[in-house]
Amino acid sequence: MVYVGDMLALSGLGRYHGARYLWLLPWAQSADGLRMAAGIDLTLLLALLHGVVFAVACTRVAGDMHAVSAEEAS
User: Fold this and answer.
1) I need a surface site. Which of 3, 28, 66, 74 has the fewest CB within 10 A?
2) Beta-sheet strands, E only, within 1-74
3) What does the alpha-carbon distance between residue 10 and residue 54 come to, in Å, rounded to a whole number?
4) Are 27 and 13 contacting, i.e. CB atoms less than 8 angstroms apart?
5) Is 46 within 8 Å of 5 (Cβ atoms)?
6) 28 within 8 A of 11, measured Cβ to Cβ
7) Do 24 and 13 form a contact (C-beta atoms < 8 A)?
8) What are the pLDDT digits (tens) for 9-47?
């Protein structure tokens, strides 16, 4: 899910050309508008969010490892 969000933020729906993709054009334009809607590039906010999620994951893993080592010691 994180990968899909990153790809949508970085490249929108992609670069589609030709008559067979005309139905996709309004969605691609709205995705491009959403990317810059906050006044800054959405990928910067995603990078911050990923940093927070990574820090939370690391602290949970560290807590689990301490619990396992304490369990093995007793």
Assistant:
1) 74
2) none
3) 20
4) yes
5) yes
6) no
7) yes
8) 666 656 656 677 677 778 777 777 777 777 877 778 888
Of residues 3 and 50, which shows the higher confidence score? 50
| Cβ contacts of 8 within 8 Å, gap of 6 or more | 31
3-state percent helix, strand, coil for the chain, nearest multiple of 5: 80, 0, 20
Which pTM value belongs to this model?
0.52
Distance of CA 64 to the CA centre of its chain: 25
Q: What's the total number of domains in the chain? A: 1
| Nearest in space to 31 (alpha carbons), one of 13, 7, 10 | 13
Q: Which domain holds residue 35?
A: 2-73
